[in-house]
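Input record, target 12 of the design panel.
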């Protein structure tokens, strides 16, 4: 049965989730499927790495890294640049620090 795509139903991974994804891949394998959107852990890891690579030289990402490293744990209240949202296996986007963009 085909599941409808809704803007309020998605998986979200932030840059700091990369270590968790690597652990889950070691435990379950890169072809393990996330039930909610039917996408493999390997694909999620690739998308997250790609989004971080796109934003890694931006002012917004530098601010995020500085506050998350040297600030208080909860001092960064905004969505971190490089965050991805997966709505379906073919529909996903990333946050560049200012707006949500489609990953190509």
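The sequence produced for target 12 reads:
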């Amino acid at each position: 049965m085909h599941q409808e795509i809704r803007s309020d139903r998605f998986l979200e991974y932030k840059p700091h989730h990369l270590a968790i994804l690597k652990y889950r891949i070691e435990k379950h394998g890169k072809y393990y499927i996330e039930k909610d959107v039917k996408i493999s852990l390997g694909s999620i890891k690739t998308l997250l790495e790609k989004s971080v690579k796109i934003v890694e030289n931006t002012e917004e990402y530098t601010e995020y890294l500085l506050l998350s490293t040297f600030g208080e744990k909860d001092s960064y209240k905004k969505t971190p640049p490089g965050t991805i949202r997966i709505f379906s296996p073919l529909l996903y986007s990333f946050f560049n620090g200012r707006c949500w963009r489609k990953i190509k």
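The chain has a mean pLDDT of 90.
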